[in-house]
Amino acid sequence: xxxxxxxxxxxxxxxxxxxxxxxxxxxxxxxxxxxxxxxxxxxxxxxxxxxxxxxxxxxxxxxxxxxxxxxxxxxxxxxxxxxxxxxxxxxxxxxxxxxxxxxxxxxxxxxxxxxxxxxxxxxxxxxxxxxxxxxxxxxxx
Amino acid sequence: xxxxxxxxxxxxxxxxxxxxxxxxxxxxxxxxxxxxxxxxxxxxxxxxxxxxxxxxxxxxxxxxxxxxxxxxxxxxxxxxxxxxxxxxxxxxxxxxxxxxxxxxxxxxxxxxxxxxxxxxxxxxxxxxxxxxxxxxxxxxxxxxxxxxxxxxxxxxxxxxxxxxxxxxxxxxxxxxxxxxxxxxxxxxxxxxxxxxxxxxxxxxxxxxxxxxxxxxxxxxxxxxxxxxxxxxxxxxxxxxxxxxx
Lengths: 141, 245
Description:
The complex is a heterodimer.
Chain A: H1 5-19, H2 27-53, H3 58-82, H4 86-140
Chain B: H1 7-81, H2 83-99, E1 104-113, H3 125-130, H4 135-147, E2 152-155, E3 158-160, E4 166-169, E5 172-175, E6 178-180, E7 184-189, H5 192-199, H6 207-212, E8 217-227
Antiparallel strand pairs in B: 1-7, 1-8, 2-3, 2-7, 4-5, 5-6
Helix pairs in contact in B: 1-2, 4-5
């Protein structure tokens, strides 16, 4: 159940923003905050995935989180400067990556759960067989 | 478990992300709520412009009235000379009364439509729309009055004639191109009881407004009222009368 911790932290973060009475963000920060959120969500999903795969590196994760957000911010800002909705690109790419990451996480957890079930079943069979052979040994002696 | 050391950093940044998402949500919400407030403020600023126009309109319509009075006098003088022109003049008077070119008086109905004073801040835009008087409301009320036998109508002092129009230009209602603002007073000469009955039909024109705020509508019967003549241009540029043989 330790896997629920990031999710709980997400909710706590949202609650903190409400409790601290964060006002509306003015200017650039407010305008592109939503885009940065998508980038952040993607990095979190990517972090969970790599963690489950056992490939997690702290440095890569933290720098990825920051640089993704900054990049998304910059792209959206640039798009507004030159009159192309580049935030759509950010939303599309990161959205696709979020979905991909989530499906990988789901598949990984599913496999893990099935493995655990299989292992338990095999253990039970082994225990039963052992008990049987024990009984036979007792009968013969 | 050593394999789970990723959970803590991910959770820490999840916290940050949750904070960001909520901040973005708060920003978006306040922006949309501010939008309507801005609209109201703009309404005030935009309203200053048309005021000068209205003054101009009043001046010009006074001029038109004076000229029409002179014309009337000349026509009566002409009519006094002999009986045939007298008959003609009577016909002309009737036609002018029908067309709204003379002052008329009689019993009637006074309908006042006011913007609601209920606070709609933070409500959806649809609800905020209900709280103000629209061009369509005036159009529907005048139409219903006509259907109930109104013979002369004016809206905030502007006589309604065959070519009259009601429309919205931005936040301002225009009657025949002249801006009017809440409260909108619609007066009609005709059978007061019949007209009031028409307006108060269940599911009728006023029911929707009253559903939101009954204080937005006031209907009074008036024993005697005077409605001024139409002050705008009566020239026809395109429509020419067909000669009858």
